[in-house]
Amino acid sequence: MTLAEKTNITAGTGIFMGSRCNGNTGSAPRVGFPQLCLNDAANGVRQADNVTVFPDGITTGATFDKKLMYERAVAIGKEARGKGVNIWLGPTVGPIGRKPKGGRNWEGFGADPVLQAVGARETIKGIQEQGVIATIKHLVGNEQEMYRMYNPFQYAYSANIDDRTMHELYLWPFAEAVHAGVGAVMTAYNAVNGTACSQHPYLVNGLLKDELGFQGLVMTDWLAHMSGVGSALAGTDLDMPGDTQIPLFGNSYWMYELTRSALNGSVPMERLNDMATRIVATWYKMGQDSEDYPRPNFDTNTRNREGPLHPGAWPNSASGVVNEFVPVQADHDVVARQVAQDAITMLKNNDNLLPLSASRSIKVFGTAAQVNPDGPNACPDRNCNKGTLGQGWGSGTVDYEYLDDPIGALKSRASNVTFYNTDSYPSNAQVGADDVAIVFITSDAGENSYTVEGNHGDRDASRLSAWHNGDKLVKDVANKYSNVIVVAQTVGPLTFEQWHDMPSVKTILIAHLPGQEAGDSLANVVFGDASPCGHLPYSITFKEEDMPESVTKLIDYALFNQPQDTYSERLYIDYRWLNKEGIKARYAFGHGLSYTNFSYTDVAIEKVTQLDTLPPPRKPKGPVLDYSQAIPNYTEAVKPAGFSTVWRYIYPWLSESDAKKAAADAESKSYPYPAGYNDDQKPGPRAGGGQGGNPALWDVAYTLSVRVTNTGQTHSGKASVQAYLQFPDGIPYDTPVIQLRDFEKTAELAPGESETVELTLTRKDLSVWDVEIQDWVVPAVDGAYKVWIGAASDDLGTVCNVDALQCESGVSGTV
Ligand code: NOJ
């Protein structure tokens, strides 16, 4: 590739400059390298026709089912490929869910690094097996929406994260993703420890590329690119969507500026060659050079067949066919429904009110039972909360072809259903003694590109209460009816002490964000075709303040100074905090009931690998590809004669005079590198050595097996087996009381049926990050670790003692 070809493929061509896809890179057609199509969302293909709206990440996390996580991803990957997406902008694992009110927690899998890591790993496998490049995002610390972005007048907040917390919580899912071979990483808008992520050399070059050995491409979040030379040297490889922070003027820090920087020597050619190689190599690795990889065939701005080819060049854009209406859904509704159904989390079910018989008289309350009367896509990027809440809002959303709503599904199954489509208790409601009332409530959140009912992305206005006076509606209904079921479609934890203990509120179901299959998935559980088997991917507290102030208080002010979001709670988020402080959760992380009961027996632990305090030394760095190259002739930077440009589109070329000047500058000027800068190859961090870090970190140290039996008489069901690790007493590191380390879900077990599941603990699972040694340390080799096993973080009736290799059932858990 020529200089201009390389700088053309390392940036987007400008926001809205391609009608297709949420971002498009430049191409190098002379050598057969196409424009790449980059597209959201973490639950499907955003702003496209004929696609499936899969349940969101939080819903997927609530299944605690690796197989379903993978199968959902296979289906999303097929749809993305069918639509011609080269780089899919998911999965989301940052935010991890540190702040319960954080706006985008629902895109990820839940407030725990292992749950996020497993969700990401299974998703990456499923997506990339289809040839689509997955993107793990956002690296890192994007734990709230307000003030996440820099603009010329305002600093984004700085997420101040100490080294150990970074490794053990926030980087953990990224490490797993790199280990799974993820092709792309997106940096976050915000700063980390004072430096913006898109130009953070320690984060990108250091942690991600050196320590985690990431071989793919690093892109900025949209319009988060803030510098030319700085971000290139920091390790960023792809500037998206190509513009400076003030878009649509055809201005970029890269493209023509990167060409200039290479010509004048301020960005070494070897860095540019590395950037371009990372992009091209990832494309080859996924097999996208094959003839049958589809080209993009959908438009993100219109559903018309024809439209502007470069909407950003309005009113000067050429027109053409932009939508080819390629259907890609196949039978993906099946897996979408299964995920939605297996995520439904039953918190309580007094008097076995559920399941209902189809002949029961049912009164349904709440506008969320029915699809938005204006249509499921009435609000762009789902930026309103009207009707059934299937997704949060913002870029992490998909357009519905249909939304199977709960009321439709309930009515098709039961003959005696009355629906009061209101969020205030209706004066004309008929109350029968044997009625069952089902009340639908919601809580929404999203990206701060939109403010919805006063919520700036984060739930800053609604806090953790139900929207639309939902709590009052539940109370009013519960005052009239004696059998009440509450169904919550929610982005995250709610507090519901106002009504939780009212005797008539017998059942609570959390449906999370079910996507397009909100109806039958729920009806199947309500009428007992399936037992609920979802588990909470976060804790529900009695009150918001049960969590530390550092996570309950949102950054809400940012004039002049950079707001500081300091992670002073360190490792102690969600259940780690509650357990440390001895605060009882209303419903603990991992909680979820079934219509049946399960026993966990025949538990055994086996040692697989004898560990040492430290992992075996990493292999020395292999030979480094030789990317060095003399600065090319300035003519490689000049637009070919006769090439006609599109207004405001971003190109890699300089004028001839600028190119000549840059080349002359290379002779006469030198770039002021920081004092001490040199380009000697270092041996590499001791914790590195493979994709994700030292490969020995993934050695299996112990396996555990558990026999799970459905001990009920009447209902089939799937059981969740969760394994939490407790570090030995007396070690010189403060560690959370217990931490999730692995989980499995059984198949559907009939009454009396059993299944044996296997869980594993790796070297990394048994380690802590030692900030002085800068490595993962096993603090007590063969020590008195305990592995607690059960159905929830507060329901752990089995314990295995790692030192004795013995397990015991029927114990009461540690929390
Ligand atoms: C901004 C969001 O933060 C990111 O997640 C998304 O992929 C891009 N916009 C592109 O839409």
Automatic annotation (TrEMBL):
PROSITE patterns linked: GLYCOSYL_HYDROL_F3
Signal peptide from the UniProt entry: none
GO BP annotation list: cellulose catabolic process
Catalytic activity: Hydrolysis of terminal, non-reducing beta-D-glucosyl residues with release of beta-D-glucose
Enzyme class: hydrolase
E.C. no: 3.2.1.21
Ranges where the record places region Disordered: 670-692
Record keywords: Carbohydrate metabolism, Cellulose degradation, Glycoprotein, Glycosidase, Hydrolase, Polysaccharide degradation
Domain Fibronectin type III-like: from-to ranges: 719-793
Transmembrane segments: none
InterPro entries recorded: Cellulose_deg_GH3, Fn3-like, GH, Glyco_hydro_3_AS, Glyco_hydro_3_C, Glyco_hydro_3_C_sf, Glyco_hydro_3_N, Glyco_hydro_3_N_sf
One Pfam family, short name: Fn3-like
Pathway: Glycan metabolism; cellulose degradation
GO MF term set: beta-glucosidase activity
Membership in a protein family: Belongs to the glycosyl hydrolase 3 family.
Protein's UniProt name: beta-glucosidase
Species of provenance: Sarocladium strictum
